[in-house]
Amino acid sequence: MELKTKIYLLNDDGDKFMGIGVLWLLNEVMKTQSLHKAAKNLDISYTKAFNMVKHLESALGKEVLSRKKGGANREGATITEFGKEFLSLYDEFQKQAKECINGPYQNFKEKLSLLMEEN
Prior knowledge:
With about 120 residues, the chain is mainly alpha-helical. The chain contains 4 helices and 4 strands; from the N terminus they run ββαααββα. The chain has a two-stranded antiparallel sheet. A hairpin with a 5-residue loop joins strand 1 (about 10) and strand 2 (about 15-20). The longest helix is centred in the C-terminal third of the chain and has 38 residues, at about 80-119.
């Protein structure tokens, strides 16, 4: 048995705007310097990737992606300084939160094991 946790940030309306998928997407944008390439590498549509970023920026009220238009490929994107700091902060938070749940989960597993042995 194992535990899987998902952590999301919600806006005031209760809609998700940040989770591990957005983190993966923006980390991939940092590698590829392109939202289109990042979406392709993660096997999601460009439209979905664009909407994920748009939703995040709307919820935060800040730009996390700087889009470049022009050039031969008419593509290009970089993470803003705010975006980089936000991603680092969120990544640290989600890792710490997941680590914190391991203690209670181990306790649960031990108690469950005892309960199963008794019955």
